[in-house]
Amino acid sequence: MLEKEFEQLYLKFRVNYCKNLFGKVNQKDGSLSATESYVAEVIYLLNRPTVREFADYIHISLPNASYKINQLIKKGYIKKINSEQDKREYHLEITDKFLDYYGANASFHTRLMEQIKEEFTDEEVNLLENMIHKIVDGILL
């Protein structure tokens, strides 16, 4: 059944992410807690949200969002950039430090892509790519 297979694929991605996340939590001074890691990931995935957009997206108050953001700024994982349209507003950007931290999943994805290309024909890979593209373009967040 499609639903069950899709859920299994999703769970494989999540369990790998969690393994990498918890393997790095509190390893050294300045490392991210699990909560901070998720907050930084949401900021990364939202692609330069404002503080308000971030707070609204995860359904927390603006003061709570500001607190979480300031903790990540102190640790060097994100930065605030003044909006060009409204100087009172800031966009949140992740830093190279976060990208290095987040890159732990890159090896999993690289291995997965290699296995897909080995296991399937070029035609099947192209079909999978097109299907994933349609799914991603159609998802409402």
Nutshell version of this structure?
With 141 residues, the protein is mostly helical.
Word description of this protein:
The protein is mainly α. It has a single domain (2-138), classed as Winged helix-like DNA-binding domain superfamily/Winged helix DNA-binding domain (Arc Repressor Mutant, subunit A). It is built from seven helices and two strands; from the N terminus they run H-H-H-H-E-E-H-H-H. It has helices spanning 2-24, 34-46, 51-58, 62-75, 96-102, 106-119, 122-138; strands at residues 78-82, 90-94. Strand 1 and strand 2 (90-94) form a beta hairpin. Helix 3 (51-58) crosses helix 4. The two termini are 24 Å apart.
Strand content: 5-15%
Helix-residue proportion: 55-70%
Mean pLDDT: 86
Question: How is the main sheet built?
Answer: 2 strands, antiparallel
Strand order of the largest sheet: 1-2
Question: Considering the protein shown, what is the CATH homologous superfamily?
Answer: Winged helix-like DNA-binding domain superfamily/Winged helix DNA-binding domain
Please report the number of helical segments.
7
Please compute the radius of gyration using only Cα atoms.
18 Å
CATH class label: Mainly Alpha
- The helix/strand series, from N terminus to C terminus, equals HHHHEEHHH
CATH topology: Arc Repressor Mutant, subunit A
